[in-house]
Structures are given as structure tokens and as C-alpha cells.
Write a structure and sequence with these properties.
alpha/beta; 9 strands
Amino acid sequence: MPQKFRLDCSGLLRFKIAQIENPKLEAEWISCADYLDNLPTFSDISHLSISLQGRILRLNSYLSATRPSSGPWCARGILAASSQGCTGLSLSLIDSWLSKHWSSVQEARARVVTRSYLQRLKSGILQSREISPGILDCSDISALMIPSIIRHRNWLRKRKDWVVLSGGDHLSNGYWVWHFDVSGIGTVLQKKMKRNRLTELYDEIGIHLNHPRVEVIDGHLYSAR
């Protein structure tokens, strides 16, 4: 019977750890969340060899690092790939990390996906996304990227609580609402909202998505009154 694993880097890592004991294990994937609240703990891997425990705990430290993209390219690529929905590449890199061997081709792919990841982080921390104090509009960004964006923002600026509006993931599209506490740990509050429900939510918290009304006079824009 398939086991349930989350579609984020913590879930992918847990799946690969479970496969060590049962190579035929099948996964039933469920929607992502904040990967930091689900990374394997020491008690989860105490049955493994000392060397494997060390590899997994070291990977955990890179995945949870304050500074984005810390560590070797293989470790960087695991988070970068999983955060952009490249599940196959992320699983392949986890295998390589656990076996302590990755090819030059894999490292090249890890570099490419990490560069893309860093560009998405830059997009996610634009000041214009803070549409009201403590509220971010990331509705054009996949839910998989949101935890990394918040922690990157907190690393660059002052830590605080955030309410974040994001896109969904492969298993639950639409719009999601998150809350991140001051330590940067996120909780998904709502999923699969339609755009009109998103607008209602903005209105509830006093934010209006519509731009100021304008009218065209002689080819120029003027505020409509």
C-alpha cells in the first residue's frame, strides 16, 4: 500500500529514507507545506547506519540554513529543484547525496536549477509585493517557493509575521493563504481559492486589488472623479 509523502523537499527526503528499507515502496503524494516543519529528525533515522545518519543530518542543516543556497551544489540543487516542481531531479540528487556520489552532469543540472531558484527568490522579495504591512501578494508564485521566499526576506530584512497569498502546487492549484510566524515557520490557512474569493479576502482585510479608475482624454490618462 502506498505511503503518503508531501510534495516538497522534506517529503521527497522522507520518501527516499523509507525506500532504504523498502526499495519497492510506492508514494502517494500530497500537497506541499512548509518543508522546515517536516524534515527528518534524529529519531526518524536512528535505525540507519552512522554514516547515513550523518549525511541526512548534514543535508538537513543545508536545507534549513538561514542564507539561501548554502552548501555543496548537490544539496543546493535538492531544494532548488523541489521548490520549482522538478521532482525527478530533486529525487535523483537526494539519491546521489545519500550515496556520496554525483556526476558532473548532475552537478551541472544542479547549478542551472539553482540559478533559476535564486532568480525566483529575487522576484519574491520585491518591495512592491508588500501590499499592506505584513501582507505579501505572491499569487503569481507557486506555493513550493513561498517558504524559501519568506526566509530569504527575513534574512535580508527585519523578521516579522507575514500573511502571504500564493499560487498553489501541482496537486492543489488555485490560490493559497499562508501565515508565517516571526521565526519564519509557515502554516497553510486556506487552499484552492478562486480569484473572486481571493478578492473577497483582500476586501476583508482592507486591501483593494483594483487600480484607481482612470479615463482617457485626448490619449492621456487622468484620474476618474
